[in-house]
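Listing S7. Sequence submitted for prediction.
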Amino acid sequence: MTNVVLFTVDDMNGDTPGCFGGHPEATPTIDAFAAQGRRFTRGHVTIAVCQPSRSVMMTGRYPHRSGAMGFMPIADGVPVLTDVLGEAGYRCGIIGKVTHVAPVERMGWHLAVDQEELGEGRDPSRYAAVVGAFVADAVQAGRPFFLMANAHDPHRPFHASDQEADHFSPQQLDTIPEPSHVFGASEWPVPGFLPDLPEIRREVAEYLSSSRRADDVFAAVLAELEAAGVADDTLVIFLSDNGMAFPFAKTNCYLQSTRTPWIVRWPGRVPAGTVDDRHFVEAIDLAPTILDAVGLGVPDGVDGRSHLALLDGDTQAGRDRIVTVFHEAAAAAWLRHHGDDPSPAQFEMRSLQDARWGYIWNAWADGTKQFFNESQSGRTWAAMADAAIDDRAVAARTRFFQYRQPEELYDLADDPDALCNLIDADEHAAVRAELRHHLLQWMRRTDDFLLDRFATEVIGVGRNQ
């Protein structure tokens, strides 16, 4: 049977790797890997925050259908990928982000090694040692394996940042190696969805250095597959769990929030150096695709569907749009921001994107509630807040981040950074109505608990009309 490695990086934007238009020095291993398989330029995660995103990957269900809408466990009775693989004889392991696939005890891992034993999830040599032993054990036992290998980079704190020194003890820092390339400020442009300010350029460089170390970890994992002689028998899938931890990316529903660098290598099956720039693929499809690829059945109740045909270079109907969601910020973030009660940290969003348009419904946006997330903890948000004192454009951008509007509409072909909200433009009324309609139908199909609100407040009809 085919082995499977699902490798995730933590908080890497979809356009960071060189092979997706980013800095080539940031991701040499990822770029070389892409040349050996197929890139999906329209790959997206379903929800742009760590634990819920990984829960989608493991269940093939939308968060409100698995119970894992925030930093909470998958509900009892919901089948997970390792249930099926384990029953079929697979040896299942997870390296890094162990507690972000919860409840840990019901995942059936034969091996679970978390960040404390991996140089805080940032040491390639420690990943190599663990992967090498895990693969050797599986080979010796004559069993196929499924390995979910998770780098903790480029999650905050970034390399050589003030946050890093505050977050880790000196003893922990001693276990974290330097990236194989360290970036200087202004080596790469600031993303277009952020203002170009000196402190933001500096933080982008820190982020890129951390991205390079994630690439180093990926290189170590791939080298162990080669050394064990199993690379040709292993399906390897690479992606990020969500966008970068900067304002307007992670924990939102923008293009840069959910688009992920999605690459698949499967020697003898997936042609090398190929690109799919037509079909939308989603993290919700991962579990059914993996099970289909290894010849196993998909559990009932899965929302995603296999895109195995796309790996073979075929076409597949119904992949011209995606729905992404967001539910809530981490309780810990709320506690840091406000005090004792984490309950108001809910920021419900629903988004529909197609090849041109992006529509977002911010169910939380009432003009008074203020959005916050982890991305505001670093240099970038502080620089934006300082600049907003004298710069009207930056002031408007920061205020919009905090309060939004109930609806947003963007022409992503012309405005991929979502800078110009067209929701009230009369000339786009037909587009607005069509996207609302498609989102309404999705909410009905998935029994979204916000269906009644959307139907009455946005569409102006009853839930069944």
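Caption to Listing S7: primary sequence and predicted structure tokens for the chain studied. The mean pLDDT is 95. Residues 3-310 form a domain with the Alkaline Phosphatase, subunit A fold (CATH 3.40.720.10).
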